[in-house]
Records
---
Amino acid sequence: MVDLERVLDDAGLSNPHVREYVAHWAGVTGAERVEVVSAADDARLIQEALDAGELLPAGEGRYYSRSYYKDTARAEERTIVATSDERDKGVYNNWKPAAEMKPKLIELMTGASEGKTMYVIPYLMAPKGSPLEKFAAGVELTDNRSVVLQMIRMSRVGVEYINDLGDNFVKAVHVTGDLENLGQGTPDDKRYFVTVADERTILHFGSSYGGNALLGKIAHGLRQGSYDGWKNGFLVEQFMLLGITDKETGRKYNICGGFPSASGKTNLAMTLAPDALGDRYYVEFYGDDIAWLWVGDDGKLYGMNPENGVFGVAKDTNEKTNPTAVESIVPGTGAIFTNVAYNEKTEEVWWEGKGPKPTDLDGWLDWKGEPIADRSDDDADLPWAHPNSRFTTTLENVPNVAKDFEDPAGVEIHGIIFGGRTRDREPLIRAIDDIAEGVYDGLTLGAEATAAADGLEGVLRYDPMSMRPFMSYAEADYAAHWLKVIGAAEEKPVFAHVNWFQRGDDGRFLWPGYRENLRPLVWLMQYKNGEVEGTRTPVGVIPTKEELNLEGCDEQTLADLDTVLTIDVERWQQEMGHREKHLAQFDGLPEEIWEAHRRVTKALDDA
């Protein structure tokens, strides 16, 4: 039996509350060994993982991992928010009573780490000294070395982050379980990913993949953080965060925003200025996935990315779509690739959308580890990489990471944007001055469903604030909290909705996207400053063609501007009916939101 006291002493872990927590769960899980880790252990742990075959080399200073083939994505139906108060139940948060879920998880975890090492990961989801530091500290216990390596990349890891915090830490327990015998996706599914939000406890059983296992990320950084924010006056959102510096004026603007899946969030977060505007504007990266927002003592709205790394989707990441991401995962960065294709002879990696598919199949294995050269004709067109394959890298590897990304004070937020994926109704950008209408717009955010999905092509799958899978309390309370926090700011951010995905009748995208998306964001900041007026419409203010900086745009883009800067009133009127049904699900929605809905509806009817 491990001498736990000696292990904790040797690691310098002095917080008595953490020591008690570790001892308790070591007993429950039956772990044979306990090891406290820090970021300084990364090289040793990498070598141990390579020696054990848990990682494979992917060129100099890069690594490849493969998860169990049934364990490759977030499992929303198995992800639960549990509290002791049924009033926390929302439409989307899969609420269950804590008294039901905690015994179930303890039973599943009892003895489940027998013969394994329990790794103790003290972490911080914020720069040290942040005003939200006491909500950002956690200790993840895991029996999986790969999880440790990913957490070292995604958070700040070391005992120094939790020794002085008393009991102000999130208790996060991850037990992998017997992945091949968990009944994934069947009625006998044994997986549970539970955030006991009112006890600041996270219990995840039955996965070694992504947010199911990296508990500082989604479970703490979003679900638990969101609940803590509700109770303590700040916002936690699945938002990207970037900074734009106008080198001509010296002014800097910081914009955060939410985008449903496949709506371009990471590509926008890591964007660069288009070549034609590069001499004037410099874009800095803060984060691609999570933002914590609060009002400072000076009345300004501040934000920060609580993460220390990027857990990006590999598919379609290339020099055109996201050159910043490509540069952040080059050899020597310590990047970890998960579930991409791998060449066991050359140690290369590949995924769909990376570039030309290799023609010499020798040595290439697909994401399941099966030789691609052995595929039958029927399987020849199957993807080489899993569609949700990932790369993990630290923020310091991102070439244009903001110089102040570690500033505990955060950065002032000047704009909040929402971006869906719609082909014909949403213009390129529409600014929203009214707070209630901005929050209303976020609550009705969505991306178009496809006919293949449910036969409702053109109808949105609503994803409020892009938080549908991550909400930890009821939507009506969520809306009220947004109104309260943003309403408390003396200097209000401007809201906007963006859409890079309008298509013509021939199916062609009408806006080039990618780096060109900086142009409407620059316009938004000019609008906030009163430098441009735009055209007022029933659903917000849109730019005139003369106001957008179009230097360097091609003739086709210029020709399509009349369409992407137009409001289709008839299509908007159809949308308002869908919105009303969507919002009606949320009992007790603040009257300000309904008033905003009625104002927009009337303005459209009057138009």
Note: The longest strand covers residues 117-124.
---
Amino acid sequence: MLLKELSALASPLNDQQIGQLQQAVAELSPQQLAWISGYFWGLSQTQSVGQQPAGQPVAAVAAKPAGKLTIIYASQTGNAKGVAQALKDEAVAAGIQADVFAAGDYKGKNLTKETHVVIVASTHGEGEAPDDAIELHEFLQSKRAPKLPNLNYAVLGLGDSSYEFFCQTAKDFDSYLSKLGAKPFVDRIDCDVDYDAPAAEWRAKALETIKDELQGGGDAEVVQLPVGQSAPAAVSQFNKQNPYSAELLLSQKITGRDSGKDVRHVEIDLGESGLTYQPGDALGVWYDNDPALAEALAAKVGLTGEESVEVEGATLSLKDALVSKYEITAANPQLVTKFAELSGSKKLQKLVEDKDKLREYAANTQVIDVFAEKKTQLTTEQLQGLLRRLTPRLYSIASSQEEVGEEVHLTVGLVEYQQGEESRFGGASGYLAHRLEEGANVRVFVEGNNNFKLPADDQTPVIMIGPGTGIAPFRAFIQERDNRDADGKNWLFFGDRTFTDDFLYQVEWQKYLKDGVLTRLDVAFSRDQQEKVYVQHRILENAAEVWQWLQEGAHLYVCGDANRMAKDVHEALITVAEQQGGKSREDAEQYLNDLRKAKRYQKDVY
């Protein structure tokens, strides 16, 4: 269409040349067309092209065409995707042509055609590749993987050092590519939860290393839209780096008075933000720490809180920095290890020698209680060096926008326990439950999760397993299916401690069941009888029906605790495949792995 429009204008090309050009570019992608535009412009700048005598062949290419950077992200919740997109934007700004692919959309055999590849990889569960990256991960370690002697690559890992298999997927990709003969053009780094600064530094280093080889194609990203084609719809300007200041409409306790847990139903007004979300997405919440805890933490290491410190080039008081810039609730293995060195605590030094015990201690001890292990005077620089930067908490969204409009709902379990005579609260959950008043503002953004989504076909049955606050996304799923008048069957497994005090959204589930939106509801309340009963037990009790649903094409979803529940549910599903499908243990595991690859077995675990 564009060439036809051009042919009507004054042009140095005759009709035959325009026809030849149309035929030549008919099957090219927008990126290829953009590259060719830059290539032809380069030819136009060489004197020899325009000065060739008539009838003689045009000289060969005057300069070697610029190469291309291919960026692949393996992302479970969106962090790796964000880093990959930032790298692409920076590459284009530097004059380097770059393409970005989700790992699930990239064919491993195409690596033989690449010269420079960057993989940004998150790690899922127990060192597993994210769902979208399973096939590429398996391909690179298989006998089908090609040798890659001409490939230059780099890997950036994202993870949480509190977990045993920190950045394992990134380590795997680095190892696999190296064994296939590819050469790293910059060393891999493994980023912790506060990854923004080290990731940005690594991206700059990577681009600096390859710019001389690849510069020249970056401007090709700008492609003129054909006549009559509109630009894509505008998206919200608000994101992780630029969160929206939203009004807290409601923070209501939904567990009973005798419950041992405080779970809140939270409603937030997205107003005029333009933020949209889909069931399965998460809401990122930036929070402030408790000022009283900040003062206590400073005092614990011999500081007043009034000292001046510098954070990101800004000068502020230590107390203010502890409130808004640093993680001061949850400990981590690195903090414990560093404090053991500074304090000389024999207890902590012994813990450091046992990685399993160290992780367990860090996961169950807050920062101030680590500092209480041995009285130690610290400088402000030492204290800042111990603490991670504050990062937002991600909560599974508990509503469908089709149902609630410009609101977003969350199901928040308050982290709360006693430490001696003092109460300890979670940073974000304490903020939402206690410190933030209704009507006040909270900074939020939407974090998309393409690996936890309802099936596109509304007739597909779904099985949802979500004990405790893991129920959140399934409330969104059911609201969405209800509003779409989806015909597919819906089966929910829910579990908690007691029916009376812990049946989250009980009235809603019973209404959906009565109306036929929810086809089946199986519950497990562990403390309502002498023998503990959990959701995995209900799955096994209904093994024949679960297997039948899976044979009918059902999609399977699990949300909640990763350490115990998700593992127990996975084991129950393996047993179902063994007993009902007549499979060996190995075949049952492969069956579930195949479901994951087909996006029929999705997890949102934490």
Note: Residues 1-11, 41-66, 217-234 have pLDDT under 50 and may be disordered.
